[in-house]
Design a protein that fits this description.
elongated; about 130 residues; single chain; alpha+beta
Length: about 130
């Protein structure tokens, strides 16, 4: 599996009424890193021919992140079969390395022209492997 990684510093607008990162923000970060990973490894032709849509998210919240915390996000595709792909995302406090969030998202590959689900071709499966 190819792991894609990035860092985010928690901003004021990421916080909820309890002054820690809002659960909805974590969901947004899960989607954002998935898109960034796709853009970083798919060529322009692949990006124009294929789209990904979310079928389901499962998220476990393990800890809290606070204002100015540096968060390490890691993602990878754990499996691809038929039209579906399972992507894992983990978020850690970069300073303490404590796991904050663990997510698994079920994605469906869409033909960009027809907007219909399609089997994941080997060329796409291959770009997610090391």
């Amino acid at each position: 599996m190819k792991v894609y990684e990035k860092h985010i510093t928690v901003q004021q607008e990421d916080l909820d009424a309890m002054n820690h990162v809002n659960n909805v923000r974590y969901v947004q970060w899960v989607q954002d890193i998935a898109e960034e990973h796709w853009i970083s490894i798919a060529d322009t032709n692949q990006q124009h021919r294929y789209l990904w849509v979310v079928l389901s998210h499962h998220i476990e919240y393990k800890g809290e992140a606070l204002l100015n915390d540096l968060i390490t996000l890691k993602t990878y595709v754990s499996s691809s079969e038929g039209v579906r792909s399972i992507r894992k995302v983990e978020m850690f406090n970069a300073k303490t390395e404590k796991l904050l969030v663990k997510a698994e998202t079920n994605w469906c590959l869409i033909n960009a022209e027809t907007k219909r689900p399609m089997r994941i071709p080997d060329e796409i499966k291959g770009i997610f492997k090391p």
